[in-house]
Amino acid sequence: MGVAGCQTLIEKVLENGGGVIFIDEAYQLSSGNSPGGRAVLDFLLAEVENLTGMVVFVLAGYTKQMETFFAHNPGFPSRFPLEMKFADYDDKELLRILERQINKKFGGRMTVEDGLQGLFCRIVARRLGTGRGTEGFGNARAVENAFSRICMRQADRLRSERRRGLQPDDLKLTKEDLTGPQPTNALRNSTSWGKLQGLVGLSSVKESVQMLLGTIQANYQREMVEEPVIQFSLNRVFSGSPGTGKTTVAKIYGQILVDLGLLSSGEVIVKNPSDFVGAAMGQSEQQTRGILAATVGKVLVIDEACGLYGGGGTQGGGTTDPYRTAVIDTIVAEVQSTPGDDRCVLLLGYKDQLEEMFQNVNPGLSRRFPLASAFVFEDFDNNDLRKILDLKLKQQGFKATDQAKTVAIEVLDRARNRPNFGNAGEIDILLDQAKGSHQKRLSLGQTEHRVTLGAVDFDVDFERMQRSQTNIPMLFEGTVGCEKIIAILQGYQDIVRTSKRLGMDPKGQVPFNFLFRGPPGTGKTSTARKMGKVFMDMGFLASADVLDCSATDLIGQFVGQTGPKVQQLLDKALGRVLLIDEAYRLANGQFAKEALDELVDAVTKDKYKGSLVIILAGYENDINRLMNVNPGMTSRFPETIDFYSLDPGSCLELLTRTLQKQKQRLKGPKGDLDLGCLERPSRRFELDALRLFDGLSKQTSWASARDVETLAKDVFNVGLRGLKEGGGHCILVSEDVVLGQLQKMLHERHGREKQVSHQLTTGVADLSLLSPPIAEPTLMHQHEERTTETSPQGAKEDDLTPPSSPEPDIRFQNDSIRDAGVSDEVWEQLQKDAQAEGEREEQYQSMLETKKTADDGELDRIMGELIEEENRRRQEAEARRRLALSGRCPVGYAWIKQAGGYRCAGGSHFVRDLEMA
């Protein structure tokens, strides 16, 4: 109409001598949805004052909206000083309105069971009165809508009775017409209730629905005796894992409510969070109000409702999303969850995410949708999955053998350990893969069954459990020094088989958390990978993959980030092996300790317990120290597997096997690898190699198998460089090549440790007074003859031949100054011990010379004495190094071994062996 139309209307009223202008739903003029509405208000504001005494203006509207209307201009309250509030009708008034409408429509001829003022009409009025005080309550209009539903029920009854050959009275309203059928009778005729009962599993959900229906039946009985009804809300939270039937049950639940007459419409509307969220400020509220207004009398299902929570973030430092927050605030304001609401709102989502959302959003949401009364959808057990599999196979026109179905359930059972297990949805994925495999086998002629799926279609390696007895030794084939680990894993397999035979759950008998203690290169990572395969074959893990990480991956960068980071990593590792290398770093720093505390807490939660294998790896002393940081660590990680450095014999065996694998890859017309010196070693070569490996193993940087693999690569590369162009295709690995590379690695490692030792002791003591370092193991003989095949072009002589320079003479200087206060007896004994040390050095050098010309029998004896002497020398050298670092002798004299301990060369300082332990 606009300003012009409004002016015309006023002129017509004035032409008739004045009158009343009634503007209904006046608030629409200020809502912004009416073009020109605000201009009309500004025009009326002036006309109301100018036409006082000639025209009466009446503005009508709903209370809440009119408050916004009067806020448009401060002049409105003064120009409309009289306010008349119309209260909602009480139950008695609603009853009289119902009576008048019945008499009006049927001219007073309609009879009502128990009378127009009787029990059943009072029940109708009382039900209508439960909506009193809520926004949108229609009062007389609500009575009119209720009367329409009564007439519809009467029409359905009359039609049904006539079909049965009866002659009903058309002018009579019965108890069922007025109050609806009894809940039990309604359920008996409800197809939706039958669908719910026919669903597989969902026992807890069915019990919850049954309890709700019991409440409805009890209220019906209480209404019949006019007792207060039990208050309850139709709004519910459906929480559960993916694929558990939340959306399906939500639709059925809504239709059951309609069948019971609790909702005026039979429509179920499904929405997602994106349907509520707007693109600009204010749009989220507008869209949410629109959806809620459109679902009055219906069931509104908000699927993935946790998507309405936009805060937190996986890193623990996110901010809330104002657009999503506005949706929740609007739902809280519009959905009151009061008895008699003609609308049912269902929030669907995953349990953990819903709980997080309810804890962090508007507190009113938890009052309107209490989690305590939520319908919890549990994961399907194996029996339920078997039934669902049968049902889906039938629907898709396929069959499966009993063995295939058993294998399919085993695959699904392993998949439970993966994050977000899809339950029934997982069956669809598995069936798609099985049908693809079956189609491939069918096209290759490997099966004649056109519609029958076999076990191999669900799992190519479905016989793994039957082969588990021999699986572990085969898995570790070629691995040196793993007998104890094989025995441990075989013991777990025996426990699993026995537990299953006795009907027990084997998960409670087999550990899932381990400590791997040992130096680097001892097989911790490779063993973790093999454990993943073993645990998957036992049915505990969904995958044999290993998630390899370090302590850094668990530690946050700021306060509040570490906990979510640990949980995120554990979620990622579900169904797999989580190997945390260098775990001892979790003992250092506040954030690291927070990560350790979170890990200790998480491993006992149902979400992670028995769903992944957690391995903490590191050096023995460091892991032991880590166990003392948190008292709960020991009980959470009760199983310890110790890894030891390979002994010299195992190192030589591993070197041979590694090069043999290279030989297998190389074998053919293009080349070959001659490993005769390793596969059929001479006695002298074997002893030389063992002594060099023994020397390497004493170095702190020795990495066992990893360094042996590096050595194998170096030996092979030397052989490659020695293969001349046109000189054949056979790569020869000679004794000189192997021993030369061993000596080269020993020189390098020993040089590194000397440099580190020098840096540690600089400024502490005069190193010239300390005993020289222990000589490296020498070879038993010199290889004077060399073949051209083993000498790489351009290679240095030192790369292939061990050095023949004489060993340094290890002697103690006995010209040290005698400290004051040292008795003659002590000084004399000290000189004797220093002299004895020099004599032992001479004997050692003599044995080194003798072994070069000794025969095989004498050689074994000399080698045994040399090894024993070198062990003693290394122990004493380490003791002297520690004494020098301790500063017990301020002058820095050398330390001389005596009975029961060490005394400095000055004589005044003595340290017992017990103090060195």
From TrEMBL:
<dbReference type="InterPro" id="IPR041627">
    <property type="entry name" value="AAA_lid_6"/>
</dbReference>
<dbReference type="InterPro" id="IPR003593">
    <property type="entry name" value="AAA+_ATPase"/>
</dbReference>
<protein>
    <submittedName>
        <fullName>Stage V sporulation protein K like</fullName>
    </submittedName>
</protein>
<keyword id="KW-0547">Nucleotide-binding</keyword>
<feature type="domain" description="AAA+ ATPase">
    <location>
        <begin position="510"/>
        <end position="647"/>
    </location>
</feature>
<dbReference type="Pfam" id="PF17866">
    <property type="entry name" value="AAA_lid_6"/>
</dbReference>
<keyword id="KW-0067">ATP-binding</keyword>
<dbReference type="GO" id="GO:0016887">
    <property type="term" value="F:ATP hydrolysis activity"/>
</dbReference>
<dbReference type="GO" id="GO:0005524">
    <property type="term" value="F:ATP binding"/>
</dbReference>
<feature type="region of interest" description="Disordered">
    <location>
        <begin position="158"/>
        <end position="189"/>
    </location>
</feature>
<feature type="domain" description="AAA+ ATPase">
    <location>
        <begin position="233"/>
        <end position="381"/>
    </location>
</feature>
<feature type="compositionally biased region" description="Basic and acidic residues">
    <location>
        <begin position="158"/>
        <end position="178"/>
    </location>
</feature>
<dbReference type="Pfam" id="PF00004">
    <property type="entry name" value="AAA"/>
</dbReference>
<feature type="region of interest" description="Disordered">
    <location>
        <begin position="781"/>
        <end position="813"/>
    </location>
</feature>
<dbReference type="InterPro" id="IPR050773">
    <property type="entry name" value="CbxX/CfxQ_RuBisCO_ESX"/>
</dbReference>
<comment type="similarity">
    <text>Belongs to the CbxX/CfxQ family.</text>
</comment>
<dbReference type="InterPro" id="IPR003959">
    <property type="entry name" value="ATPase_AAA_core"/>
</dbReference>
